Amino acid sequence: MRFGSAFFVPALIGLICTSGKLYAAEKFKLLGTWEIEASSLTMPNAPQHVTITFSDVGANRYKMSVDIVDHEGKPSHGEGVFIPNGDLFPASGSLDVDIVSMTMPSAKILVMGAGIAGQPSSTRVFSLSDDGKHMIETVVRHGDKGHPITRVDIWDRKKRPAI
Hints:
By secondary structure, the chain is mostly beta strands. It contains 1 helix and 10 strands; from the N terminus they run H-E-E-E-E-E-E-E-E-E-E. The chain has one helix spanning 2-25, and strands spanning 32-36, 49-58, 61-69, 75-82, 85-90, 99-106, 109-116, 119-128, 134-142, 148-159. Strand 5 (85-90) and strand 6 form a beta hairpin. The protein is globular.
């Protein structure tokens, strides 16, 4: 039995290392442009139009761009470049985000912790639907009494990046 366990542990370590390398080669599946039906947003003064675009900018870095036309018709643009490793990265152009920490637990999921002016603003989980046509965004914020408020938004894929 000693021979079996002596063989099993190195084989298991090799399998884990190989699996990590295989995943690292898998492409982020949320790349492209996503749009939400603004009338489905359950928030005060919901915007008229919103798109999110995820782009691969090389060296394991990604760019997230958000374009909004607010309820009065005023356009805004926010963006940031990040590595999905949990480090802090600046974001610009947003009213509620100026710093983010991103992780990618799988090629189909992106988790974002966001802050503004030194305070937490939201946690967002972006995940790809099984059919690849929709992005599900789960947003968690905290209300006036510190209670969590969760919202789920469904985005439609508008454009995939060229391969």
